[in-house]
Amino acid sequence: MAILTLYSADLDDPLLSDARVAGCLNAAERTRADRYARPDLARRFVAGRVIMRHVLARVLGVPPADVAITHNAWGRPELAGGPFFNLSHAGRSALFAIDELAPVGVDIEIDDPAAEQGWFDAILSARERAEFDAGRPAASTLLRLWVRKEAIVKAIGRGFSIAPAALDVGLREVDVHKWRPIEIDANGVSCSPVLIDLPGHEIAALARIGPASAHIVHKCYFWNGLVAQ
Q1: Contact 156, 73 (CB under 8 A)
Q2: Tens of pLDDT, residues 144-180
Q3: In Å, how far are 6, 45, 116, 181, 222 from 228, measured between CA atoms?
Q4: pTM of structure
Q5: Which of 45, 63, 167, 207 is the most buried (most CB within 10 A)?
């Protein structure tokens, strides 16, 4: 049975960026944290890496500092031999997906009613543009479109080297109960990921390369343990 585990976390939990806990980060991760101009962004980056390393360490049975995270040519963090994983955060909210059988991508955004529709012009496919012109959807619908597309390109592992307008996912209504297949044939990439919207106060989506996961296990991540929802 294919099981995909999805962790939600609060990046502003002070224990996640405590110096003793963050000691598991490698030199490159610490250097990247130091480059952030704002302390809150640096703290949240550290917290996200702590979550990533500790969850993967539990799966692999090694200390968090020994998790050998590398990056592909497009910058996606990964492990040789798996498992597959992906992290996304918006503000203080984070989602971390892990799957032992297939690549996954997750994206989360904070709903922003002030978002301007013009921001999204460049990401619309021809069919989405027709839907947009016919209905003038709310900004939240367009943010939903964005997270769907970002989750897909993160699962593929190529980021937005794949033009978002080349991905046709549609301005469809939210369905948090059903995976749906998406056919991708753009920028030299041909694959059939599956996509699902995620429940919650933020706007989020999850993609998987391959068949739909038989089960998504949702968990909350706390420094002192993992609590199933």
Answers
A1: no
A2: 999 999 999 999 998 888 889 989 998 888 899 899 9
A3: 10, 24, 37, 28, 11
A4: 0.92
A5: 207
